[in-house]
Amino acid sequence: MNCLSLLILFIGFELRQAQILDHCKIVVASNTDAGDSQQVSAAVPLPGCIYGEIEWNHPQGTLLFTNSLPGQNYELCLESDWATALSGVTELTNGLHVPLPVPTTGRPTCTLANQGRASLLLYAPRKVNGQSVYMSSINYLVLDASMVHGSLTPHP
Known about the structure:
Blueprint: H1 3-23, E1 26-29, E2 39-43, E3 51-57, E4 62-68, E5 74-80, E6 88-93, E7 96-100, E8 109-112, E9 117-123, E10 135-144
Parallel strand pairs: 1-3, 2-4
Antiparallel strand pairs: 3-10, 4-9, 5-8, 5-10, 6-7, 6-9
């Protein structure tokens, strides 16, 4: 195989990977008129999406992020991205709200699914000098619990 063929094969692979990741990207926006009392929702778009980005435009209030894979044991994780701006993260399980650490570079935050369902409540960043943040971006991962030796981020 010559160099040109390898280059074309590589470019095709990279484009396919970008298409897969783009398919798993979530874009959500808060209503800028509703203020901090609002809640917006987002879910992992497809069962095959195990990694993606959440782009939260004009973040205000909270973002309820969920995933449902009936009958499967997994962890739903958040990892810091280039523009992650959150003031808090809470795990929602059986009606309980358990505060979790906000993910930082190299330190993801995870929750173990309960009966195939995982829910995380993300809190918008605090205003800076009275101004809201324009966007917050965070990565998500869906990890098979049988492949994970303990949670990536211990719960308090």
